[in-house]
Amino acid sequence: MATSEPRATGADQDPNTANLRPPSGTYEYAWMHGCTRKLGMKICGFLQKNNSLEERGRLAGQKNLLSCDNSDSESRFRRTEIDFSNLFARDLLPAKNGEDPTIQFLLEIVDILTNYIKKTFDRSTKVLDFHHPHQLLEGMEGFNLELSDQPESLEQILVDCRDTLKYGVRTGHPRFFNQLSSGLDIIGLAGEWLTSTANTNMFTYEIAPVFVLMEQLTLKKMRELIGWPGGEGDGLFSPGGAISNMYSVMIARYKYFPEVKTKGMSAAPRLVLFTSEHSHYSIKKAGAALGFGTDNVILLSTDERGRVIPADLEAKIIDAKQKGYVPLFVNATAGSTVYGAFDPINEIADICEKYNLWLHVDGAWGGGLLMSRKHRHKLSGVERANSVTWNPHKMMGVPLQCSAILVREKGILAGCNSMCAGYLFQPDKQYDVTYDTGDKAIQCGRHVDIFKFWLMWKAKGTVGFEQHIDKCLDLSQYLYNKIKNREGFQMVFNGVPQHTNVCFWYIPRSLRGMPDSDERLEKLHRVAPKIKAMMMESGTTMVGYQPQGNKVNFFRMVVSNPAVTQSDIDFLIGEIERLGNDL
Amino acid sequence: MATSEPRATGADQDPNTANLRPPSGTYEYAWMHGCTRKLGMKICGFLQKNNSLEERGRLAGQKNLLSCDNSDSESRFRRTEIDFSNLFARDLLPAKNGEDPTIQFLLEIVDILTNYIKKTFDRSTKVLDFHHPHQLLEGMEGFNLELSDQPESLEQILVDCRDTLKYGVRTGHPRFFNQLSSGLDIIGLAGEWLTSTANTNMFTYEIAPVFVLMEQLTLKKMRELIGWPGGEGDGLFSPGGAISNMYSVMIARYKYFPEVKTKGMSAAPRLVLFTSEHSHYSIKKAGAALGFGTDNVILLSTDERGRVIPADLEAKIIDAKQKGYVPLFVNATAGSTVYGAFDPINEIADICEKYNLWLHVDGAWGGGLLMSRKHRHKLSGVERANSVTWNPHKMMGVPLQCSAILVREKGILAGCNSMCAGYLFQPDKQYDVTYDTGDKAIQCGRHVDIFKFWLMWKAKGTVGFEQHIDKCLDLSQYLYNKIKNREGFQMVFNGVPQHTNVCFWYIPRSLRGMPDSDERLEKLHRVAPKIKAMMMESGTTMVGYQPQGNKVNFFRMVVSNPAVTQSDIDFLIGEIERLGNDL
């Protein structure tokens, strides 16, 4: 491979062992003397190019005889001007002489990204620049989404990258409140950049030794926070909370009816699952996918705050048994999607123990509160669960995707899912193959979701996550206090929110005096969508809305972004009033 | 937000619309005059810091009255020396004055990554630096994987990043042949860096407008390559081929027995699935997970090349029907995991039509060959499939994860999976909500896997993928030709490989004269693991091995990395001989 860079002298001098940084000043010096150094390196590069030594240098540890620079085994990048209009993907590594264009191309990308990052945190930037699908498909100012047979120049690729960001949504913006996942954590981002550069797969220790161990240690810490003795148990990172919840149903079934794995659902009686009417739809999806049927996912009634009423659970268990069905599984939600409600886990656990049912806690949204000494009591009883879903990509600000399924009983994940594929999980490897995780998963290839989270935990400590969570909950309480008695605002339920969810209607002036009637409800139902549409058109902020049960469309405000301040909450209130007052 | 950078004058001047680059020379100029510019910006930053205007600048389009630099709305990054030993995650954005440390920290990360990338393509670098789990857990040279309550400094975080790469496996190295996914595509990598910076979610157009459209257009192109008329149909990117295959089984069931969605598997007769004994284990995993049971996944016999024997399929269908079971689904593998075999799709499709069965083609590994005019005939008949799995992250070199499930019938994915969650998929949004994809998926949040692939397709064109595929297959044929008659090598099956898989035993000198016997087989079974262990210890190369059926451990060589040359193939042969000769 040709190069224009100084080189390490051999593979045994791994560059990663080099000092973290050159002596202070070296870098500036390199810049000042860029021209002469470059000339030297060109000569050096020419010599290397014309020598196929590295092609012949077969054995690890063998030194390259040719080395231009022994002292600088890890060089700091240098930025140069390159004309990308005549360069193509084929000119980058592994192409001969591809090293310099590769580095310069990546630095251009980094330039685009760092500018985007700066703007994301800048409140004078819009949250989004909204366009309808047909507008984007027609091509905005030359942004052509169509793919073609022939390659585009790297200059065009850079333009495409800018355009992609330009027409996207800044989910890290301090005024983006639209989803449970928001924010742009810089450490997490660095972790993702590294993860994609390492480009490996979690299924075996063999090709992901460090990541596999990080996953193991991190899952253990999470289990300790749940409260399982010694952090014992099992778990995996999965591609999102819905899949984590699906795992929980699968392993519950395997625990009580292991023959279903080989014989199918016909080997079991009619099994029923229980979950809150406020719970995430993934429990129903799992019921449909795994062959239970959505009719056998029984929805539990909730109190006015959206929390499961334990007596209703018990009544429905008894009812199911009387019908000859077999209750199998109860999902308790720790932080419901809309209300942010925490089901009373201890009372539900009592019932699960009484009737010998699997208890799963869906803490996809609320699991993060386990890291806060102030708020973890809301999950009291979680240590009695058989399995827990917990998505660090929601409340803890980890970049998407990062979701864990945690299981109290060791070995059951593998028992449920293993197929012992010989080509991956050879028993005769030279290392302890119990570290291979692939056969526990329903996936084969599995993306490395752990590193960004591990790195954030290292960088913030548990206390950093705690501070983040406490701050977000404080902000929600601030919002609640500001609007609970404010003219034009009406809370969907009373009392301080349990999580960061604040649910409210905005009542435009025209509806304020109006008596309760179907007409008023119909009109109110249309208010939130109208305000939301105007918000998106103006690009100033984004917040979600939805109906729930018999309640017409209302706003659901959530805070999970550390960039949010009280001023952003004030801004949201003002914006809703500005846009909605005269509807 | 405080800043030390020049600013755009307002949100309506989106920085992304700025020219791609400043006039030639500007950048160098900025460097030369860094000191005076910096001073100016410090003053400017001070003024901005002490003015909360952006906090009050509420409406989009409103200009910032204070602006330090009107001409340079998108600034190029500048690298400065920062002492990270006293900085922590909390000092980065969104912290006050966090912008400069943020950019400098990310540039340090980029420095680590670009050095890693350069070394990855450098054959004098080891593929891996192997350590056993207990060694890494004990802490290598201070690399501590344990998490703690208190934060680490950013300097330590940078060291951790270096160590993570140091002890990992270079899957992009030209001598890494261990998995179907290998290589480090620079465009794909840039795409991943951008994706993680955008940090959004595919479930709605609302928060991923550009990515949703890219997915739609790319899936259409893929369906065109499959040969479905007009590229019509449906599809999704899913977290890997196993999940894509699971989708295919789910939608087949929904097509023939839609009542299973609500009533469960008890509403259907005993359904059976058919797949090759050489097929990927994910079909069996899907059978277990979805409630069919692995006993109802019937394995089909193959010829000596690992291709399904159509007559065996028909015989087993008839047998199942005679037993009163209901054949539902046939999986034809296009590129099997170990042999790289392509099942005869047309003959299988004939049988599926005759018996009215769902035909799925698992092209996770072989789907990429559809882009090659020379090799696409191997998937002849794929246009008759009802669904196709195709993983661009394998043969096409797209970074992990990137897998598509493609479906011929429009609407069936949504029919199968929709639960109509009101909080996400509001029908009263201001845009055409048919663009919201979330309710088609079994996931809720869905990672953006499309962008890197779309960007690679833009940058290479269809012809670029074609060249890549043709080159990899040529290299495999080169290997096959080199070893088919070479002393010490024995092919597992005869004939030119259909895909890049080349399967062979290496026979150490001590076994060469030995007559066929159980003893010889036992000894031969231990050869590949021993050579592999030595390879990993020396770090020079990696290649997979496994047993298959009654065949003892053999090597499976695959090529999907564009960095591989004939010299690397020669190297592998030589390395196996060097390590194995005297076993």
Automatic annotation (TrEMBL), chains A, B:
For region Disordered, the annotated ranges are 1-23
Record GO terms (molecular function): glutamate decarboxylase activity; pyridoxal phosphate binding
Q: N6-(pyridoxal phosphate)lysine: which positions carry it? A: 394
Concerning PROSITE patterns, the annotation shows: DDC_GAD_HDC_YDC
GO biological process entries: gamma-aminobutyric acid biosynthetic process
Point out the signal peptide segment. Answer: none
Q: Which residues form a coiled coil?
A: none
Entries under CDD domains matching the protein: DOPA_deC_like
Keywords from the UniProt entry: Decarboxylase, Lyase, Pyridoxal phosphate
Concerning Gene3D superfamilies, the annotation shows: 3.90.1150.170, Type I PLP-dependent aspartate aminotransferase-like (Major domain) (3.40.640.10)
Cite the InterPro entries for this sequence: PyrdxlP-dep_de-COase, PyrdxlP-dep_Trfase, PyrdxlP-dep_Trfase_major, Pyridoxal-P_BS
Domain of life of the organism in this record?
Eukaryota
Tell me yes or no: is Lyase among this UniProt entry's keywords. Answer: yes
- One GO CC annotation, please? cytoplasm
Q: How does it assemble?
A: Homodimer.
Say which family it is in: Belongs to the group II decarboxylase family.
**Name of the protein:** Glutamate decarboxylase gad1
